[in-house]
Amino acid sequence: MALVTTKEMFEKALKSDFAVGAFNVNNMEIIQGIVEAAAEEKAPLILQVSAGARKYAKPAYLMKLVEAAILDTGLDICLHLDHGEDFEICKKCVDDGFTSVMIDGSKHPFEENIRLTKEVVEYAHAHGVVVEAELGKLAGVEDNIKVDQKAATYTDPEEAAEFVERTGVDSLAIAIGTSHGAYKFSGDPSLDFERLKKIHEMIPNTPLVLHGASTVLPEFVDKCNAYGGSIPGAKGVPEDMITEAAKHGICKVNIDTDLRLAMTAEVRKYLQENPSDFDPRKYLGPARDAIKAMVQHKIKNVLKASGQR
Ligand SMILES: O=C(CO)COP(=O)(O)O
Ligand SMILES: O=C[C@H](O)COP(=O)(O)O
Ligand SMILES: [Zn+2]
Ligand SMILES: [Zn+2]
What domain of life does the native source organism fall in (predicted)? Predict the structure, then answer.
């Protein structure tokens, strides 16, 4: 039981049809819910921390909470920085003991993305830490993307090959139609599987990463709305598309929104049904259980990662 890199889990995932879940963490209950699910499912696990999470919970707390999770469950866990925007934050996380960092240079021109990624790879590798980079831009719901626009925002397979070759990055996040948050599609959901297959063909030994992979299950949106929420028209990536993507080189699947919805729905329900309670454990306990159930469902039914530890 230790903090581990993604090396072994990705090698295994690349060879078979499952993907490793990478779940965003912000506090103790979220961490506990996730690790308990992964432990019961005997699944490989990545806990990821965004810059926002780092600011909210503070680096020292997050580090100690993850260490406690390892101690309590006996799991091997990869601790990953999600969407690091510059060299400095990546360096800080490497120095703090993270085992994986993402440098997200996707907003920069190709050459600048390469330069930035190389700089992080050099530092991280010298410290035994693996690096994820991003090429292509995740589109939002309002982009009713036409084919030529797709070419501009989605990951170009040839560029992906050149990018990996020149940066020496360990894994690559790609854009094939997913986006962050609860509003991913205005019409019917669709992902560019042809593009994914082409990318996987060009760089078969590079584990690919799917950001914005929450499904936004109607059950949880409805539950939020039924208990005072207002999240109309939310829509995510159908679960069978995630399972399919895992068969074509996607080794890491990022999930945050689905955890937020599960937790919020449970807290809303509890507080509305129990208006006189004011002990935070009363609603954070069920919220933690809701996170656990959601993660267990993802690992088992969507990522097919049960027993792959
Ligand atoms: O990609 C993510 C984190 O990097 C999370 O995506 P979702 O918003 O779909 O959960
Ligand atoms: O990709 C982003 C993750 O969902 C984290 O979101 P955040 O920046 O609000 O913590
Ligand atoms: Zn990005
Ligand atoms: Zn992301």
Answer: Bacteria
CB of 82 closer than 6 angstroms to any ligand 1 atom: yes
pLDDT tens profile 227-248: 999 999 999 999 999 999 999 9
Element (H, E) at 258: helix 257-273
Hey, CA dihedral for 50, 54, 60, 65, is it positive or negative? negative
In which element (H, E) is residue 78 found?
Answer: strand 78-84
Residue at 2 is within a domain:
no
Does a structural domain hold residue 17? Answer: yes
pTM of the model: 0.97
Catalytic-residue membership of 82: yes
Question: What confidence tens digit (pLDDT) does each residue in 151-204 have?
Answer: 669 999 999 999 999 999 999 999 999 999 999 999 999 999 999 999 999 999
Helical (H) or strand (E) element with 30: helix 28-41
In a domain, 193, yes or no: yes
Q: Note whether 236 and 258 are within 8 A (CB).
A: yes
Total number of domains in the chain: 1
Q: Which amino acid is at 107?
A: K
Q: Give 101's strand partners.
A: 81, 131
Q: ipTM of the predicted structure?
A: 0.97
Q: Ligand 4 centre from 272 Cα, in Å?
A: 32
Residue 228 has φ and ψ, to the nearest 5°, of 100, 0
Is 215 a pocket residue for ligand 1 (Cβ < 6 Å)?
Answer: no
